[in-house]
Here is the input.
Amino acid sequence: MSPILLSPGDRLVTVFGGGKVALRKCRHFEGFRIRVVSPEVLPELEAIAHEVIREAVDPETAGGYMDGSDIVVAATHDHALNDAIRDVSMSKGIMTNSAHGGGDVLIPSTLHRDGYTVTVSSEGRVPAFPPYVIERIDEFLDPSYDAMLELLVELRKVIRDRIPTQPGRAEFLASVLADETIWGMLRDGDTEGAYRRALAEGGLS
Here is the structure.
């Protein structure tokens, strides 16, 4: 598998199913245009969706609801129907996720922070594993990581003019990340001190 992060843009995700599994899938795609196709739809799911088609679906009719879709999600309660939806979607060349596997899109467990995102996937083998790892990562990534990201963003604004080459800028930022004193300052809330030390250690003050 090759993991990527995909910007929503104006992309359309068509989700077959209106229950808890479909809701969980749709929450992952918030920001995309979401079309839900199901005879019954949870109110929480209807609130997320941009379009709800309250129709029963079978393998013969599923393809008609996929027009214009960038991604199709098969999330009904029926294993065989999900397999059929998956096969129709993939035959149309549409990226596909299926609640029962076999598609070419896997939905990872995700940790969103202000400015960065961490995802974990077991590549469909053990669904219980990624959420557990995400919980552990969330515990590990204390507020100093958010502060470090903000520090690096501010430093990049300065070094564009002071360090002439991209390799040089990358080396400088890597040295900041490796500086345990700076990490300690950030953990103590001394962001100004961390900024001044980074510039001084890089010969830029």
